[in-house]
Automatic annotation (TrEMBL):
Cofactor(s) essential for the protein: [4Fe-4S] cluster
GO molecular function, one term: catalytic activity
Keywords: Iron, Iron-sulfur, Metal-binding, S-adenosyl-L-methionine
Domain of life: Bacteria
Protein name: B12-binding domain-containing protein
Organism annotation: Candidatus Portnoybacteria bacterium CG_4_10_14_0_2_um_filter_43_36
Amino acid sequence: MKKRETNNAGKEYKVFLVEPPISVQEYEINNETKYTIWLPPLWAISIGTFFRKKTPRTHLKILDGQLLSFSNIKKQIIKGKPDFVGISPKHKTYQRALRLARISKQTGAKVILGGLYADSLAKEIIKNRGPRSSDYCVDLVVKGDGERAFLGYCEGQPLKQINNLVYQGEHEIKENPIDFPDLNNLPVLNFNLVNPNNYFQDYQKRYPSLKRRTMLRIYTQKGCAWRRANKRGCIYCSFSGGPIRLRNPRTIWREINNAIEEYSVNTISDISDMAFEDKKWFNEFYRLALKNKNP
Ligand code: SF4
């Protein structure tokens, strides 16, 4: 891969974070799910919040294919000509993710894939879609947490110094070490990066007879004790492992209160896998719940 010599720190650049489109019907096929509720993509909110804090001059846009059509996203990429496009494919959206990656590449963007699904096949993606492939549409894959790696890449840091990257090196595909930073150093999630009301209205429009549901998703921790158990733990899912990392319960309650006050949220969903694993943490979370103005 050609060496990137520029250093973009402090410069203005354009970043699009794209959740590839998926339809309600497609989501519910072979699935017990009924009354699908789309929620703002946490990965994009978290990376976007981090960029807003660290590099406020960046032009940042989240294009969520849960609400936007493929052609709408395509148009916005062609018109907006972003410098960097981050895409998080899921098992049902991989082909669409690649189509959007090709469109982004044609407009001159650097394309970064990440998230649980890209993570587990990172080397294969670079082999088949990276700079040495006949279908070059992906520049690199981020494994694990994306905030620092994505920002480091956009700012032009040398690739070998950026943890969590998988990319085409001169002779082989390189996998940099993965780090698991303290989640408490990340800023409180900024849901203003999308408009949560669009998600609430979409649900109401599809299910007008159901009770109004205003729901947002957060995470209280990352990691899974079952994966780690004596190194012989569960290997069923594709998450990249690492220690259990807990967020400060006070920060979480601040996030929940913001969501209630700003968007009249009536349901909060926690995507974490191990909410009851750490008793001390849970007791503190519960103690604060009893004192909280929105228990
Ligand atoms: S999150 Fe679930 S599937 Fe994944 S390692 Fe843990 S127990 Fe297994």
